[in-house]
Protein backbone atom coordinates (compact mmCIF):
# COMPACT_ATOMS: atom_id res chain seq x y z
CA UNK A 1 0.00 0.00 0.00
CA UNK A 2 2.81 2.40 0.89
CA UNK A 3 4.81 1.64 -2.26
CA UNK A 4 1.96 2.67 -4.56
CA UNK A 5 0.14 5.27 -2.46
CA UNK A 6 0.30 7.87 -5.26
CA UNK A 7 -1.88 5.74 -7.52
CA UNK A 8 -3.91 4.09 -4.76
CA UNK A 9 -7.02 6.06 -3.72
CA UNK A 10 -7.71 3.64 -0.87
CA UNK A 11 -4.52 4.32 1.06
CA UNK A 12 -3.26 7.48 2.72
CA UNK A 13 -1.29 8.37 5.85
CA UNK A 14 -4.29 8.24 8.16
CA UNK A 15 -5.21 4.67 7.23
CA UNK A 16 -1.63 3.61 7.96
CA UNK A 17 -1.81 5.50 11.27
CA UNK A 18 -5.05 3.74 12.23
CA UNK A 19 -3.69 0.29 11.44
CA UNK A 20 -0.45 1.05 13.30
CA UNK A 21 -2.26 2.15 16.48
CA UNK A 22 -4.62 -0.84 16.39
CA UNK A 23 -1.78 -3.30 15.76
CA UNK A 24 0.42 -1.89 18.54
CA UNK A 25 -2.47 -1.83 21.01
CA UNK A 26 -3.42 -5.46 20.43
CA UNK A 27 0.23 -6.50 20.36
CA UNK A 28 0.68 -5.02 23.84
CA UNK A 29 -2.51 -6.56 25.24
CA UNK A 30 -1.80 -9.92 23.68
CA UNK A 31 1.84 -10.34 24.69
CA UNK A 32 1.75 -10.65 28.47
CA UNK A 33 4.95 -12.71 28.71
CA UNK A 34 7.05 -10.09 26.91
CA UNK A 35 6.63 -7.52 29.65
CA UNK A 36 5.40 -4.77 27.34
CA UNK A 37 2.50 -4.00 29.69
CA UNK A 38 4.90 -2.93 32.43
CA UNK A 39 6.83 -0.66 30.08
CA UNK A 40 3.92 1.00 28.26
CA UNK A 41 1.24 0.61 30.96
CA UNK A 42 -1.77 0.36 28.62
CA UNK A 43 -4.11 -0.34 31.54
CA UNK A 44 -3.68 3.11 33.05
CA UNK A 45 -6.37 5.55 31.96
CA UNK A 46 -4.07 8.27 30.68
CA UNK A 47 -2.26 6.07 28.18
CA UNK A 48 -5.52 4.55 26.98
CA UNK A 49 -6.80 8.01 26.09
CA UNK A 50 -4.22 8.17 23.30
CA UNK A 51 -6.08 5.32 21.60
CA UNK A 52 -8.81 7.88 20.83
CA UNK A 53 -6.51 9.25 18.09
CA UNK A 54 -8.12 6.62 15.88
CA UNK A 55 -11.41 8.56 15.96
CA UNK A 56 -10.28 11.82 14.27
CA UNK A 57 -7.81 9.83 12.13
CA UNK A 58 -10.77 7.90 10.69
CA UNK A 59 -12.54 11.12 9.78
CA UNK A 60 -9.38 12.53 8.15
CA UNK A 61 -8.91 9.26 6.25
CA UNK A 62 -12.39 9.47 4.75
CA UNK A 63 -11.93 13.17 4.05
CA UNK A 64 -8.72 12.61 2.08
CA UNK A 65 -10.20 9.55 0.38
CA UNK A 66 -13.27 11.39 -0.92
CA UNK A 67 -11.53 14.64 -1.86
CA UNK A 68 -8.43 12.89 -3.27
CA UNK A 69 -6.14 15.40 -1.57
CA UNK A 70 -2.44 14.67 -2.01
CA UNK A 71 -1.00 16.93 0.69
CA UNK A 72 -1.47 17.12 4.45
CA UNK A 73 -2.16 20.36 6.26
CA UNK A 74 -1.18 21.61 9.70
CA UNK A 75 -4.79 22.54 10.39
CA UNK A 76 -5.55 18.82 10.60
CA UNK A 77 -3.85 18.87 14.00
CA UNK A 78 -6.89 20.68 15.42
CA UNK A 79 -8.60 17.29 15.56
CA UNK A 80 -6.37 16.13 18.42
CA UNK A 81 -6.98 19.20 20.59
CA UNK A 82 -9.77 17.50 22.53
CA UNK A 83 -7.61 14.42 23.17
CA UNK A 84 -4.79 16.65 24.48
CA UNK A 85 -7.33 18.51 26.66
CA UNK A 86 -8.76 15.27 28.06
CA UNK A 87 -5.27 13.94 28.72
CA UNK A 88 -4.33 17.19 30.47
CA UNK A 89 -7.31 17.44 32.84
CA UNK A 90 -6.95 13.78 33.81
CA UNK A 91 -3.22 14.15 34.53
CA UNK A 92 -3.75 16.84 37.18
CA UNK A 93 -4.74 15.30 40.50
CA UNK A 94 -6.01 18.63 41.81
CA UNK A 95 -8.84 18.55 39.29
CA UNK A 96 -10.27 15.29 40.66
CA UNK A 97 -12.54 17.18 43.04
CA UNK A 98 -13.24 20.15 40.75
CA UNK A 99 -16.51 20.98 39.07
CA UNK A 100 -15.31 19.24 35.89
CA UNK A 101 -15.57 15.86 37.63
CA UNK A 102 -18.59 16.74 39.72
CA UNK A 103 -20.27 13.45 38.76
CA UNK A 104 -17.10 11.45 39.35
CA UNK A 105 -15.09 9.36 36.86
CA UNK A 106 -18.23 8.79 34.79
CA UNK A 107 -17.70 12.35 33.52
CA UNK A 108 -14.87 11.02 31.36
CA UNK A 109 -17.28 8.52 29.85
CA UNK A 110 -19.63 11.31 28.77
CA UNK A 111 -16.74 13.33 27.33
CA UNK A 112 -15.48 10.37 25.32
CA UNK A 113 -18.98 9.29 24.21
CA UNK A 114 -19.79 12.77 22.92
CA UNK A 115 -16.40 12.92 21.17
CA UNK A 116 -16.89 9.57 19.41
CA UNK A 117 -20.52 10.23 18.42
CA UNK A 118 -19.58 13.67 17.10
CA UNK A 119 -17.01 12.19 14.71
CA UNK A 120 -19.28 9.34 13.65
CA UNK A 121 -21.88 11.93 12.63
CA UNK A 122 -19.21 13.95 10.80
CA UNK A 123 -18.09 10.85 8.91
CA UNK A 124 -21.66 9.82 8.05
CA UNK A 125 -22.46 13.31 6.79
CA UNK A 126 -19.26 13.40 4.69
CA UNK A 127 -19.72 9.97 3.12
CA UNK A 128 -23.45 10.31 2.48
CA UNK A 129 -22.91 13.59 0.60
CA UNK A 130 -19.69 12.78 -1.22
CA UNK A 131 -20.14 9.08 -2.02
CA UNK A 132 -23.11 7.03 -0.82
CA UNK A 133 -25.95 9.16 -2.18
CA UNK A 134 -24.08 11.13 -4.80
CA UNK A 135 -25.27 10.63 -8.38
CA UNK A 136 -22.81 12.76 -10.31
CA UNK A 137 -19.12 12.18 -9.67
CA UNK A 138 -15.75 12.81 -11.32
CA UNK A 139 -14.21 9.44 -10.49
CA UNK A 140 -14.04 6.53 -12.87
CA UNK A 141 -17.13 4.34 -12.34
CA UNK A 142 -15.14 1.28 -11.36
CA UNK A 143 -13.12 3.24 -8.84
CA UNK A 144 -16.27 4.89 -7.50
CA UNK A 145 -18.03 1.56 -6.98
CA UNK A 146 -15.03 0.10 -5.15
CA UNK A 147 -14.63 3.17 -2.95
CA UNK A 148 -18.34 3.18 -2.14
CA UNK A 149 -18.35 -0.48 -1.08
CA UNK A 150 -15.12 -0.06 0.89
CA UNK A 151 -16.35 3.01 2.80
CA UNK A 152 -19.62 1.28 3.72
CA UNK A 153 -17.77 -1.75 5.10
CA UNK A 154 -15.17 0.32 6.94
CA UNK A 155 -17.77 2.70 8.41
CA UNK A 156 -19.84 -0.20 9.74
CA UNK A 157 -16.71 -1.56 11.42
CA UNK A 158 -16.04 1.93 12.84
CA UNK A 159 -19.53 2.03 14.35
CA UNK A 160 -19.26 -1.47 15.81
CA UNK A 161 -15.85 -0.76 17.32
CA UNK A 162 -17.12 2.51 18.77
CA UNK A 163 -19.98 0.67 20.47
CA UNK A 164 -17.54 -1.87 21.92
CA UNK A 165 -15.31 0.91 23.28
CA UNK A 166 -18.23 2.78 24.85
CA UNK A 167 -19.60 -0.40 26.44
CA UNK A 168 -16.13 -1.24 27.75
CA UNK A 169 -15.62 2.23 29.22
CA UNK A 170 -19.06 2.31 30.84
CA UNK A 171 -18.48 -1.12 32.39
CA UNK A 172 -15.07 -0.12 33.71
CA UNK A 173 -16.27 3.21 35.12
CA UNK A 174 -19.34 1.60 36.67
CA UNK A 175 -17.35 -1.18 38.37
CA UNK A 176 -14.49 1.10 39.42
CA UNK A 177 -11.92 -0.82 37.34
CA UNK A 178 -8.78 0.63 35.76
CA UNK A 179 -9.99 2.34 32.61
CA UNK A 180 -8.47 0.93 29.41
CA UNK A 181 -11.46 0.29 27.13
CA UNK A 182 -10.52 -3.35 26.72
CA UNK A 183 -13.42 -5.10 28.45
CA UNK A 184 -14.97 -5.87 25.06
CA UNK A 185 -11.63 -6.07 23.26
CA UNK A 186 -12.28 -9.57 21.95
CA UNK A 187 -15.18 -8.29 19.82
CA UNK A 188 -13.24 -5.28 18.60
CA UNK A 189 -10.39 -7.62 17.68
CA UNK A 190 -12.74 -9.72 15.55
CA UNK A 191 -13.97 -6.60 13.74
CA UNK A 192 -10.42 -5.38 13.04
CA UNK A 193 -9.34 -8.82 11.87
CA UNK A 194 -12.23 -8.75 9.41
CA UNK A 195 -10.92 -5.45 7.98
CA UNK A 196 -7.37 -6.77 7.74
CA UNK A 197 -8.60 -9.90 5.99
CA UNK A 198 -10.75 -7.80 3.63
CA UNK A 199 -7.67 -5.83 2.59
CA UNK A 200 -5.59 -8.97 2.08
CA UNK A 201 -8.17 -10.50 -0.28
CA UNK A 202 -8.83 -7.20 -2.11
CA UNK A 203 -5.77 -6.39 -4.25
CA UNK A 204 -7.38 -3.18 -5.51
CA UNK A 205 -7.09 -1.84 -1.95
CA UNK A 206 -3.50 -3.01 -1.55
CA UNK A 207 -2.28 -1.70 -4.90
CA UNK A 208 -4.85 0.65 -6.40
CA UNK A 209 -6.36 -0.34 -9.73
CA UNK A 210 -3.75 1.19 -12.09
CA UNK A 211 -0.88 -0.65 -10.37
CA UNK A 212 -2.98 -3.79 -10.04
CA UNK A 213 -3.61 -3.87 -13.80
CA UNK A 214 0.09 -3.41 -14.44
CA UNK A 215 1.05 -6.10 -11.90
CA UNK A 216 -1.35 -8.65 -13.35
CA UNK A 217 0.41 -8.36 -16.72
CA UNK A 218 3.44 -10.09 -15.21
CA UNK A 219 1.43 -13.28 -14.92
CA UNK A 220 0.45 -13.36 -18.59
CA UNK A 221 1.65 -16.17 -20.83
CA UNK A 222 5.18 -15.45 -22.07
CA UNK A 223 4.35 -15.95 -25.74
CA UNK A 224 1.30 -13.73 -25.68
CA UNK A 225 3.31 -11.14 -23.77
CA UNK A 226 5.97 -11.06 -26.50
CA UNK A 227 3.29 -10.81 -29.17
CA UNK A 228 1.65 -7.87 -27.34
CA UNK A 229 4.94 -6.04 -26.90
CA UNK A 230 5.51 -6.21 -30.65
CA UNK A 231 2.30 -4.24 -31.10
CA UNK A 232 3.69 -1.50 -28.85
CA UNK A 233 6.54 -0.82 -31.21
CA UNK A 234 4.28 -0.96 -34.25
CA UNK A 235 2.77 1.86 -36.24
CA UNK A 236 0.14 2.97 -33.76
CA UNK A 237 2.00 3.55 -30.50
CA UNK A 238 5.00 5.55 -29.36
CA UNK A 239 6.47 5.29 -25.87
CA UNK A 240 8.20 8.65 -26.00
CA UNK A 241 5.94 11.60 -25.20
CA UNK A 242 5.59 14.46 -27.60
CA UNK A 243 5.70 18.04 -26.31
CA UNK A 244 3.15 18.53 -23.56
CA UNK A 245 1.48 21.92 -23.68
CA UNK A 246 -1.03 22.12 -20.83
CA UNK A 247 -0.12 22.20 -17.13
CA UNK A 248 -2.79 19.62 -16.38
CA UNK A 249 -1.25 17.16 -18.85
CA UNK A 250 2.19 17.76 -17.35
CA UNK A 251 0.89 16.81 -13.90
CA UNK A 252 -0.82 13.77 -15.37
CA UNK A 253 2.43 12.71 -17.03
CA UNK A 254 4.17 12.65 -13.64
CA UNK A 255 1.52 10.32 -12.23
CA UNK A 256 1.13 7.80 -15.05
CA UNK A 257 4.42 7.82 -16.97
CA UNK A 258 5.35 4.40 -15.55
CA UNK A 259 1.93 2.97 -16.47
CA UNK A 260 1.89 3.92 -20.18
CA UNK A 261 3.29 0.61 -21.41
CA UNK A 262 0.74 -1.41 -19.42
CA UNK A 263 -2.07 0.87 -20.66
CA UNK A 264 -1.02 0.26 -24.28
CA UNK A 265 -0.95 -3.50 -23.77
CA UNK A 266 -4.33 -3.51 -22.09
CA UNK A 267 -5.98 -1.28 -24.73
CA UNK A 268 -4.67 -3.52 -27.53
CA UNK A 269 -5.88 -6.57 -25.64
CA UNK A 270 -9.38 -5.06 -25.31
CA UNK A 271 -9.34 -4.39 -29.04
CA UNK A 272 -7.98 -7.70 -30.36
CA UNK A 273 -9.08 -10.20 -27.70
CA UNK A 274 -12.13 -8.72 -25.99
CA UNK A 275 -13.35 -7.11 -29.24
CA UNK A 276 -14.85 -4.17 -27.34
CA UNK A 277 -15.29 -2.13 -30.52
CA UNK A 278 -18.03 -4.44 -31.78
CA UNK A 279 -20.20 -2.26 -29.56
CA UNK A 280 -21.06 0.82 -31.65
CA UNK A 281 -21.06 3.10 -28.59
CA UNK A 282 -17.63 2.14 -27.20
CA UNK A 283 -15.84 5.34 -26.18
CA UNK A 284 -12.68 6.34 -24.33
CA UNK A 285 -14.62 6.42 -21.06
CA UNK A 286 -15.76 2.82 -21.68
CA UNK A 287 -12.15 1.77 -22.22
CA UNK A 288 -11.14 3.56 -19.02
CA UNK A 289 -13.92 1.86 -17.07
CA UNK A 290 -12.84 -1.58 -18.22
CA UNK A 291 -9.24 -0.84 -17.22
CA UNK A 292 -10.31 0.68 -13.92
CA UNK A 293 -8.56 4.00 -14.54
CA UNK A 294 -9.80 7.60 -14.94
CA UNK A 295 -10.93 8.59 -18.44
CA UNK A 296 -8.31 11.35 -18.46
CA UNK A 297 -5.59 8.67 -18.53
CA UNK A 298 -6.94 7.15 -21.77
CA UNK A 299 -7.44 10.58 -23.33
CA UNK A 300 -3.81 11.38 -22.45
CA UNK A 301 -2.66 8.03 -23.88
CA UNK A 302 -4.15 8.67 -27.33
CA UNK A 303 -3.18 12.33 -27.26
CA UNK A 304 0.54 11.82 -26.63
CA UNK A 305 1.39 8.16 -27.23
CA UNK A 306 -0.63 7.28 -30.33
CA UNK A 307 0.12 8.28 -33.90
CA UNK A 308 -3.58 8.10 -34.70
CA UNK A 309 -6.65 9.45 -32.94
CA UNK A 310 -8.96 7.30 -30.86
CA UNK A 311 -11.64 7.31 -33.58
CA UNK A 312 -9.05 6.16 -36.15
CA UNK A 313 -7.80 3.47 -33.78
CA UNK A 314 -11.38 2.27 -33.25
CA UNK A 315 -12.05 2.23 -36.98
CA UNK A 316 -8.83 0.32 -37.67
CA UNK A 317 -9.67 -2.22 -34.96
CA UNK A 318 -13.09 -2.85 -36.47
CA UNK A 319 -11.65 -3.38 -39.94
CA UNK A 320 -9.04 -5.79 -38.56
CA UNK A 321 -11.88 -7.61 -36.84
CA UNK A 322 -13.78 -7.74 -40.17
CA UNK A 323 -10.74 -9.13 -41.99
CA UNK A 324 -10.35 -11.78 -39.31
CA UNK A 325 -14.00 -12.81 -39.72
CA UNK A 326 -13.62 -12.95 -43.50
CA UNK A 327 -10.57 -15.19 -43.10
CA UNK A 328 -12.63 -17.49 -40.86
CA UNK A 329 -15.39 -17.81 -43.50
CA UNK A 330 -17.97 -15.45 -41.99
CA UNK A 331 -19.17 -14.45 -45.49
CA UNK A 332 -19.85 -18.06 -46.43
CA UNK A 333 -23.18 -17.79 -44.65
CA UNK A 334 -23.59 -14.06 -43.96
CA UNK A 335 -23.76 -10.82 -45.99
CA UNK A 336 -21.47 -7.79 -46.09
CA UNK A 337 -24.15 -5.82 -44.23
CA UNK A 338 -24.11 -8.39 -41.44
CA UNK A 339 -20.34 -8.14 -41.32
CA UNK A 340 -20.60 -4.36 -40.95
CA UNK A 341 -23.07 -4.61 -38.04
CA UNK A 342 -21.09 -7.44 -36.46
CA UNK A 343 -17.91 -5.39 -36.27
CA UNK A 344 -19.54 -2.29 -34.78
CA UNK A 345 -20.49 -0.11 -37.76
CA UNK A 346 -23.91 1.53 -37.81
CA UNK A 347 -24.49 0.66 -41.48
CA UNK A 348 -22.77 -0.68 -44.59
CA UNK A 349 -21.70 2.69 -46.05
CA UNK A 350 -19.28 3.77 -43.27
CA UNK A 351 -17.98 0.17 -43.20
CA UNK A 352 -17.30 0.27 -46.97
CA UNK A 353 -15.49 3.64 -46.71
CA UNK A 354 -13.38 2.55 -43.74
CA UNK A 355 -12.51 -0.81 -45.30
CA UNK A 356 -11.30 0.77 -48.52
CA UNK A 357 -9.38 3.48 -46.66
CA UNK A 358 -7.41 0.95 -44.63
CA UNK A 359 -6.96 -1.93 -47.11
CA UNK A 360 -7.20 0.02 -50.41
CA UNK A 361 -9.71 -2.70 -51.46
CA UNK A 362 -13.47 -2.61 -51.35
CA UNK A 363 -14.91 -5.48 -49.23
CA UNK A 364 -16.01 -7.28 -52.42
CA UNK A 365 -12.62 -6.85 -54.12
CA UNK A 366 -10.83 -8.03 -50.96
CA UNK A 367 -12.97 -11.19 -50.90
CA UNK A 368 -12.26 -11.85 -54.60
CA UNK A 369 -8.55 -11.27 -54.04
CA UNK A 370 -8.60 -13.66 -51.10
CA UNK A 371 -10.35 -16.38 -53.08
CA UNK A 372 -7.87 -16.15 -55.95
CA UNK A 373 -4.77 -16.42 -53.76
- Output the number of helix runs: 19
Helix and strand succession?
HHHHHHHHHHHHHHHHHHH
End-to-end C-alpha gap: 56 Å
| Silhouette | elongated
Largest sheet: number of strands, sense, barrel closure? none
Beta-strand percentage range: under 5%
Task: Set out the fold topology.
Layout: H1 13-29, H2 36-40, H3 45-49, H4 54-67, H5 81-91, H6 106-132, H7 141-175, H8 185-200, H9 203-207, H10 209-216, H11 222-232, H12 247-256, H13 260-272, H14 284-291, H15 295-304, H16 310-327, H17 336-342, H18 348-359, H19 363-372
Helix pairs in contact: 1-4, 4-6, 6-7, 7-8, 11-13, 14-15
Description:
By secondary structure, the chain is mainly α. The chain has two domains: 5-207, no CATH class; 211-372, Homeodomain-like (Arc Repressor Mutant, subunit A). 65% of the residues lie in helices and 0% in strands. The chain contains 19 helices and no strands. It is elongated, with a radius of gyration of 29 Å.
Primary descriptors:
373 residues, mainly alpha, Arc Repressor Mutant, subunit A
Quick summary:
This protein has 373 residues and is mostly helical. It has helices at 13-29, 36-40, 45-49, 54-67, 81-91, 106-132, 141-175, 185-200, 203-207, 209-216, 222-232, 247-256, 260-272, 284-291, 295-304, 310-327, 336-342, 348-359, 363-372.
Amino acid sequence: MLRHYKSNPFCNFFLVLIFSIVSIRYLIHGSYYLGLQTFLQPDSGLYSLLYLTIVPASYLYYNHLTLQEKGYKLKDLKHIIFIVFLYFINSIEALDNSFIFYFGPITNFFFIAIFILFYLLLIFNLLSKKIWFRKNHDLNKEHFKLIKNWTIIFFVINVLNSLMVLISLYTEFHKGLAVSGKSMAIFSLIFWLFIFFKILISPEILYGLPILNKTLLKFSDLLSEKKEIISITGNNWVLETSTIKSTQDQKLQENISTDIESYIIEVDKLSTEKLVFRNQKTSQSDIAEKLGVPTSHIVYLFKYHSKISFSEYRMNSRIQDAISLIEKGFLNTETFESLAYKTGFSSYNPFFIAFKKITTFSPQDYLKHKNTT
